[in-house]
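Late entry, evening session. Most of the bench is empty. Finally got around to the prediction I had been postponing all week. Sequence below, unchanged from the version circulated by S.P.
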Amino acid sequence: MRFEILVRLIVPDPWSFTVLDTLRRKFGLTEIEEATRFRTWLLSLDTPRESSAKAIIDRLLGETALLANPNRDMWFVRSPHEMIPDSFWRRSISGSEVFVIRVIDIDDIIGRARQEVVRQRLGITEIKSITFSTLWMLEIAGDSKRARRIAEEVAVARRWRKGLLANPHSQKALVGSLDEYLEGLLDERAQA
C-alpha cells in the first residue's frame, strides 16, 4: 500500500517566492502565476488494510519530527488518486493550468536515511520504503499545450535561463498536469 505525505511550511515559503520571482523576472515567464513547493514522502507499507497503514503513518507523524515538524510544517496524507484540498495549497481561482514537477534525487540519501531510522530505531518494520522528493505546483496562464511546454522548460536546468528546479546531474524531474499527478501517472513514470 502506498501513501504520499505532502509537507509545506506554515508560514509563507521564501524558496517558493524566490523561484516564482526568478521565473517571472529573470526568465521572463510572466505566464507563471504561482509556484508552490512541497517536501514529499512516498511511503510503501506492507499492511493488509488501509486503516492499519494510516495508523502507522499517524503514529510516525505524531510521535516524531522525522517527516514533518509540527512547529513549522503542515501536512496532508494522501492515498493514491485522492484529491488535495485547495485550502492546503492555496490554489488561486484564476483558471490557470496547474502543472506538477516532482524532483527526485537520483541517489535518495534522505529517503533511505529516514527509512533506516524508522525501521531500525523506531521498529516500524511495516514500512518497506520511503522516498523523498520535492514537488512543485506551478499555476500557468494560457492554453494547456503552452503551459505544459513552459513547465517542461523550467523543470531541469540545462543552460543559462533555461530550467531551474532540477539539476540534471543528480536529479530527475517528472512533469505532468495536476490530473496526471492525481491519477498517479507521475509515480508510475518514476518507477519505470
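Two things to note before I forget:
The first helix runs from residue 14 to 26.
The CA atoms of residues 125 and 156 lie 35 Å apart.
Will write this up properly tomorrow.
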